[in-house]
Amino acid sequence: MKYYIIAGEASGDLHGSNLIHELKRKDAAAVIRCWGGEKMRSAGGEVVKHIDELAFMGFAEVIKNLRAILKNFRFCKKDILAFQPDALILIDYPGFNLRMARWAKKNKLKVIYYISPQVWAWKESRVKLMKRCIDKMLVILPFEKEYYKKRWDWEVEFVGHPLIAEIENSLLQSASEEPLSEKPVIALLPGSRKQEIKKKLPVMLRTSRNFPQYQFIVAGAPSVNEDFYKEILKDYPEVKSLSGKTYSILRQAKAALVTSGTATLETALLGTPQIVCYKGSPLSYFIGKKLVKVKYISLVNLILNKPVVKELIQNELTPENLTTELKRLLDDNKYRETMLQDYDVLRTMLAEKGNASSHAADIIWRFLSRTED
């Protein structure tokens, strides 16, 4: 069969690559054309649009790049029609992918959505469109299946979380790992986009000056060149930056300062105590605060529905507040232990279905095989 997959961010590239591996195991004749990154390319997908061209974060940034976004829509539609896939598989990235779902349905394409948009947090009105345009919805958070059924009378499939398998593989590699520092490590995860790194990393770096007994290491995003980090780090020669070694850094870290998003979940599943950091442009934050309906911004707190990890948001994200919270995280053993116990509960919830990518590929293969009959 022919599959057209669209992922627009680094996390989508990771989950898309694992899905491609599993689809190829189920379907030896699979031909896969995709929007993604190097991981999806390595898995065997033909990448026609790279995620480096797609990651626009926040309301203000989207408006500024509207011309490029509209050009991407036109290219995508033309490319899909030329390819004529058996299914269009959309991975998260809702601002773009939901528009593509609506267009694809009008053009009588089968639409599968893997990793639900966070409509339970904001833009709940999207669900009506999603029910009309999506033939099969696969969700990765345990509360989402009940949310869609109870609130919208929509049967969706919970496949487990794809990060579980990724983390398990990572932990198997840790036995042969070289120590990153003689000092205990503090991990800095400022995000994967340049605009968010510019906002959060300087605050993290100023905090590092208050902990000379620790080695602070920036987990550099593979999609961001080293010169970008060097410029920000030029006044902090004591801070290291390592690209493509995020899991290794987290495994060895005593604590982590983490940008909100998938990284908070990765950090928890690797068992590293953390503080969650968020700071956006004033306009994006103002609009988001009016629209977002959830109590927490980190996936860890959202899934467990309680404040497991500290969140420092917008004006709260200061070197002074980070210093206070990091000292607590490092010195309060009871606080650390409670957080780690909650991480264990989280891991059990997300691992319920086993290998999520394999489970998702099974559902997709069965669904398409039935509809081909």
Explained architecture:
- With 373 residues, this protein is α/β, with parallel strands linked by helices.
- It folds into 2 domains: 2-160 and 352-372, Glycogen Phosphorylase B (Rossmann fold); 166-350, Rossmann fold (3-Layer(aba) Sandwich).
- 51% of the residues lie in helices and 17% in strands.
- It contains 17 helices and 13 strands.
- The protein has helices at residues 10-26, 38-42, 59-64, 66-83, 94-106, 126-133, 142-152, 163-173, 194-208, 226-233, 246-252, 262-269, 282-291, 299-304, 319-331, 333-350, 356-372, and strands at residues 2-7, 31-36, 46-50, 87-91, 111-114, 136-139, 157-158, 185-189, 215-220, 240-243, 253-259, 274-278, 310-313.
- A 7-stranded parallel β-sheet has the order 3-2-1-4-5-6-7, with helices on both faces. Strands 10-9-8-11-12-13 form a 6-stranded parallel β-sheet, with helices on both faces.
- Helix 12 (262-269) links the parallel strand 11 and strand 12.
- Helix 5 (94-106) packs across helix 6 and helix 9 (194-208) packs across helix 15.
- The protein is globular, with a radius of gyration of 21 Å.
- The two termini are 13 Å apart.
Write the layout of secondary structure elements.
Blueprint: E1 2-7, H1 10-26, E2 31-36, H2 38-42, E3 46-50, H3 59-64, H4 66-83, E4 87-91, H5 94-106, E5 111-114, H6 126-133, E6 136-139, H7 142-152, E7 157-158, H8 163-173, E8 185-189, H9 194-208, E9 215-220, H10 226-233, E10 240-243, H11 246-252, E11 253-259, H12 262-269, E12 274-278, H13 282-291, H14 299-304, E13 310-313, H15 319-331, H16 333-350, H17 356-372
Parallel strand pairs: 1-2, 1-4, 2-3, 4-5, 5-6, 6-7, 8-9, 8-11, 9-10, 11-12, 12-13
Helix pairs in contact: 1-17, 4-5, 5-6, 9-15
